[in-house]
User: Fold this.
Amino acid sequence: MADETATTPENTESAQGQTVSPDNEGANAQTATVTSSPAPKPGASSPKPRIPSPSALAKKTPQVAAPVQHSAYSQDEVDAAKTFGRVDDQGNVFVNDNGTERIVGQFPNAQGTEALDLYAHRYLDLKAKFDLFEARLKSSEIKSHEIDESLKSLKEESKEPQVVGDIAALTSALENLQQQATEKKQALTAARKEAMSKAVAERTVIVEKAENLAASLGDNTNWRSTADKFRSLFDQWQEHQRTSVRIDKTEADAMWKRFSSARTEFNQARRKWAQSRDAEQSKAKQLKEEIIKEAESLQGSTDWGATSHEFNALMDRWKQAGRAGRNEDDALWTRFRAAADTFFNARQADRDEMSSTEKDNLVKKEALLLKAEALLPVKDEESVKKARQSLAKIQEDWDLIGYVPREDVHRIESRLDKVDKQIKSVEDAAWKQSDPEADARKSSFEIQLTGQLADLSAQIEAESDPKKRKSLEAEKAAKEQWLKVIK
Assistant:
């Protein structure tokens, strides 16, 4: 709606007949001259301007407005509005306001219905504001303060408006808009309450996650990961503040206090853990320095077996000492590893040299083994004696040769033992045949068995109990088997 300003009695032309320009109604707005008489006829002399009387000034003649050249409304709308007004011969414009006629302006030089057209347009402009506000009330983006400000503005503009049109309809529309505005504000209040409840619930979830993290702190806490989680929750908190409805300050402060307390609890626990870790790392560094000194003192030893065990013990102590920090541990380990490598490399070099000697010894022992196996078989006592003498010489040379590779020890030793066992078995057999004490023991046992068998036979003949008789017969059968063996 164009924001024209009517010319009130306070700013009408003075008694000296000055001309005034009405507010701009458009690029082609005409200039109205306020006079108390019609415009002079062509050729006639200009009349003297009439000085308004005090009573005329007291009436506060409504403003003089310029005619409208362009309209955004249909002619039917304009004509309908004009039915509520009239213009008298002096150019005064009147409107029927709820049964009472009141003057809304003056346009003495207007031709025909130009004056009514102007004020009808003003009415339609005001009505358009009502329609625009009604449409705006249906928007979900309107705010309560906007509703209040719009209503206030419409009330002021519709209080005895300087327009020509259906004023009663405007009054009714205003009442209707007030009702709609009340309902809309109630809906906005309910929506805001619901949105706030949702926002509180969402932010409470963030708070509870922080509190759960703080409650889960312990010896197995991954502090770096937990710190990342707290940072993420803080980012979520800030994002929620930016994107959600504003929460009541008291409730927001209470939730922030809980969140902040959880984060403070985490920071204090992490600081305490860091202090404990630093103390442990310092102690670990000291222990590892001591281990390194011992390792460096052992690195030149040639007592391969004992020193190897000592280095293994140092390694166990190293593992139990704990960590001294990544950078410290790497440097300490390099020093310890250097001492250990010095020893173990020397031991390996000695083993490599020994391995070459052991392979040579294996060749020599395998040659002796062939000589020993050539002594077999032995059949009589004479050949056994010669084989035993030759084997004894071979075993003596065998021991003088020295070590062979570990993986070959069992193989060649078992072959030599086999030769020894076969010779010994023949020796044992010959000894048994020539042992007089063995013959005497055999004869005595045979006599005992023969006597026992005779007694058992007599007991069997005299026994009437079938079970006892059967037991005696079994005992007799066993002794008969023994007798067969020794004969």
